[in-house]
Amino acid sequence: MVSEKDTRSTPIRLLLIDDEVGYVNVLSNRLSKRNFLVGKATSGSEAFQILRQKDFDVAVLDLKMEDMDGIEILKILKKMAPELAVIMLTGHGSAEAAHEGIKQGAYDYLTKPCELDELIEKIRKAYTQQSAD
């Protein structure tokens, strides 16, 4: 099992998936400064291409995307990498969609905008749980 200390010293490999390019870039920069190795995708298809090339510990997925529905992206991610912990972001107050995501295998969800510390805590918990399984 991974201890809390280990999650801080070993960089967590994180894939951000959101079609808001500015949001992805800002969040990536902020997380990179906090010892995360961040991959960025601005579409579902781009996320799948990146996931074929690299392994990730945790993905943060926006539920409302231009090219594909977030739930569909989640289903494909879980088929490609069943061990990948996925945290969903919903900016439209759609708790119903977030609950559907949990049923489809997502670790948890947060409502956008969320506090950076809250997101980091959720990512670390997902990583710790995923590493323990």
Structure at a glance:
The chain is α/β, with parallel strands linked by helices. The protein has a single domain (4-128), classed as 3-Layer(aba) Sandwich (Rossmann fold). It has helices at 4-9, 21-32, 44-53, 70-80, 95-103, 116-132, and strands at 12-17, 36-41, 58-62, 85-90, 108-111.
Provide the helix percentage.
40-55%
- Low confidence ranges: 1-7
* Structural domain tally: 1
Tell me the structural class. alpha/beta
Structural summary, described in words:
The chain has a single domain (4-128), classed as Rossmann fold, CATH 3.40.50.2300. 49% of the residues lie in helices and 20% in strands. It contains six helices and five strands, in the order αβαβαβαβαβα. It has helices at 4-9, 21-32, 44-53, 70-80, 95-103, 116-132, and strands spanning 12-17, 36-41, 58-62, 85-90, 108-111. Helix 5 (95-103) links the parallel strand 4 and strand 5. Mean pLDDT is 89; it is low at 1-7. It has 133 residues and is of the alpha/beta class.
Describe the protein's topology.
Elements: H1 4-9, E1 12-17, H2 21-32, E2 36-41, H3 44-53, E3 58-62, H4 70-80, E4 85-90, H5 95-103, E5 108-111, H6 116-132
Parallel strand pairs: 1-2, 1-3, 3-4, 4-5
Give structural attributes.
133 residues; 6 helices; globular; alpha/beta; Rossmann fold
